[in-house]
Amino acid sequence: MARYLLTVLLLIPAIPLFSQDIEVIGIDRLEEELNKQSDTVYVYNFWATWCKPCTEEMPDLLKVEKEYTNHKMKLILVSLDMPSQKDTRLAKFIKEYNISSEVLLLDEPDFNRWIPMVDDSWTGSIPATLIHAPGKGYRKFHEGMISYTELKSHIQSLIQ
Amino acid sequence: MKSLLTIVFSLILSSTLMSQGYEVGDYATDFKLRNIDGEYVSLKDHQDAKGFIVIFTTNHCPYAIAWEDRIIALDKMFKNKGFPVIAINPNSAEAYPADSFEKMIERAEEKGFTFPYLHDEKQEIYKIYGATKTPHVYILKKEQDKLKVSYIGAIDNNYRDAEQADEHYVQDAVNNLLAGREPDPDFTRAIGCGIK
Fold first, then answer.
1. Fold of the domain spanning A21-158
2. Inter-chain contact A53–B159, Cβ cutoff 8 Å?
3. Predicted confidence (pLDDT) per residue in A124-139, tens digit
4. Choosing among B92, B152, B189, which should be mutated to test the A contact, i.e. which has the most A CBs within 10 A?
C-alpha cells in the first residue's frame, strides 16, 4: 500500500500543467492527417498566436465547433507558432481561450514542401482554413479570415 | 446607358484584376512612399539600378524578424551590383501599433537597415502588388522604363535558421538575372503574417 501511494505521489509531477496536449508534428503526419478517410467533416485552421487576424477569428471557429458538438464535425487547429513557444505562449493562449479542440504544432521550416499539399492556391498567408469532408469528396480551401456565417454554411451543407 | 454599363463593368473588372495582384511576367507600378528619413522614395529615383528586390515586411511579425538579418545581407550583397533592397511596411498602425512610422524608424536604427524602409501609408501599393503577408518578396527587373516582375515569393527555404536553408531563392534569382537568365524557380511560397 505504501509503495502504491509512493508511486502515485511520484507520478503527480508528470501530470501536465494544462490538460490540453499539443502534438508537435512533421510533414508526414500532416499528410496522413489531410488524407484521413472518414465520414467526419474536418475543419483545419492554420494559425499562430502572433497572427492578429487569426486570433480575431478564433472565437468564431470555437463557436461553430460548439454548435456542431453533436455532429460528426471536428475542428483541428494547426499552429504555426515557433516550437520553442509551445509550452509558453501557445499553451497560455489555449488556456485563455478555453480551447478543447485538437491542436497540432507543425514543425516544418521548409514551407514549399507542405503548403501545396494543403492547397495549391495557397500563397502562405494565415489564417487559412481547409474544410475537408472525405466521405463526400468535398474539399474547400479559404485563404484569409473566414466568417462565422461562411464557415457555418459550408458545414451545414455537408452535415445532413 | 450602355456606356455607363461599360464603365461600371470595366471598373469591376479592373478592381478584380487589381485585387489579384501581380504574377511573374507582369509589369509593376512605381510608387512614391515615405521613407524613415522623412523623404519620399520612388523606384525611378534609382537611375543606375538594374532592378529591385522589393520586400513587404514589418516590425512585429516573427517571420519578418527571423529573416531580417538575411534581408540586410541581401542588400549588402546586391546593392552595388544594381539590385538594391526596397523594404515596404504595408501594415496599418491601428491594427498593429508596433508597425507605426515611429516604430519603423526605431527598428531600422536598432538593426542598422542599409536600405529604404518605406511606409505604405494608404495601404494601396501592397494591394496592387498582391502581397498577402510579410515577408513577401517581389524582384523587379528594369526593361527600358518598365519594371518586370521576375520573381515572387520567399527569401529562402528555412525561416528559422539561415544555416539550414539550402535553397536561397532570392539570392539565386538575382544572380540569374545578373547573368541574363530567368530565375528558376520564379515563384515560391512561405508562411507569413497576414497584412492588416
1. Glutaredoxin (3.40.30)
2. no
3. 999 999 999 999 999 9
4. B189
